[in-house]
Amino acid sequence: MGTKTILITGANGEIGHGLISHFAEHDGVKVVGVDLNPLDDTTRTKCFKSFTGDILDKRFLDSLSTGFDFDSIYHLAALLSTRAERQPTLAHKVNVDGTLNLLEMTVTQSRLQGREIKFIYPSSIAVYGLPDLPTKHKVGKIKEEEWTEPRTMYGINKLYCEKLGRYYTHFYRQLDAEPMAGYVDFRGVRFPGLISALTLPTGGTSDFAPEMVHQAAKGEPYTCFVREDTTIPFMAMPDAITALLKLDAASREKLGREVYNVGSFSPSASELNNRVKKAFASSDVNFKPDLKRQAILDSWPEDVDDSEARKDWGWKPAYGFERAFEEYLVPAVTRFYMSK
Ligand code: SER
Q: pTM, whole model, 2 decimals?
């Protein structure tokens, strides 16, 4: 098998870091990393090439397309849900127009290379919108097609971009004389909140969980912006990376849909707090709900039904709640702050 070339947008973000580190440890992949800000030194050295540029700049994307033959495009760049509520029009531009630009670039790449190009897309549980807490508790795990009435700009952007992906894969320019499908092979996962031991998210609403872990590891107090009973699904970063890679590697015939739920564990904020305290006895969490961010979390599901991903491409998280803490988060976050 020859070397693959992969484009990663949002390379400076949390998933970008995880993916780039993974590829750096495995032969056969050349990563072209792109971000609005210069990549940090460690990440940059792990890339084959890196570029600072804006995904809203079509000329920048054209130059990338001319310079490389990409096998897969991992489009990770986005404004997360809390930041997107503060700057909704900017979020729409980056999250939607940016994705549209990348999809168009994928078509260009496909034409240049004469083959279908994979487009790997992290969507989110933010595409869901439960109307109230009793409904959230009642419905429990939800399937992909249920409750897709998001109440955030970010959730709306992600849901729409999933539809764009489906359009580019199956119906692109469907009125043209020549059939235009077969350029883009869009594959998405709806991630729960992600928790990494090595990085912190910026501008998300599920950030209370990683923040709680990192503050405890640093020995600093944490004011948690949610109620103790708040429950949404979470996933350890290594499993998130596995999900993207497995979905990329799956054969197209096995995929019955464009976008899949992936789940791992669903602790309440109070269970998280107890588990963090068990690991870091000095952890000092004070719950002081921000009612507006809380309302967003209350509209996200308690858990997701990921049976389609398990069936179609063998999704299976390595980390449950206990194992995530015991074998990944606690040792890795401890090492991380010791080395600082
Ligand atoms: N973690 C994201 C956020 O909180 C949801 O996908 O915005």
A: 0.97
